[in-house]
Amino acid sequence: MKHCKLLVSNKQVYDSHEDSNRDSYEGTITKKNNNIYIIYREEDKCEDTVVTNQIKVYKDGSVDVRRMGDHKSLLKFNMDRPYTTFYNTGQGSIELTFKPIDIRCLDTDKGYKVGLKYDIYMGGDKLSYNEYILEAEF
Predict the structure, then answer these.
(1) 30-67 pLDDT, tens digit each
(2) Is the distance from CB of 113 to CB of 134 less than 8 angstroms?
(3) Which of 36, 82, 91, 121 is deepest in the core (most CB within 10 A)?
């Protein structure tokens, strides 16, 4: 296990507008059984919430993004198939389908980078195009 600095970027593109944010965190990165585990903690003092994020990169290139704590979710990204789940929001739980467009994972001497591009659907309707980029540096 190595301590690392993380830069996390998110972008959501809707028909009417676009949202994006970029935050930095402290976390850990571990390699175990040819899989990569990146763990970091988010605190939102305005909402008084704490969430631990675990990103697992499998040796086949698929990625799980698990959120534990005050907000719970599991998103699975595999280029071979979409993933449908009930996703908890501030307004309640909704069924969403995540369809990966591109999954990139890069292991370097200085750290690790995960890039996800995907569409989100509710029913048959596309809600948004999304990008998630996590850069971990030792």
Answers:
(1) 999 999 999 999 998 888 889 999 999 999 999 999 99
(2) yes
(3) 36
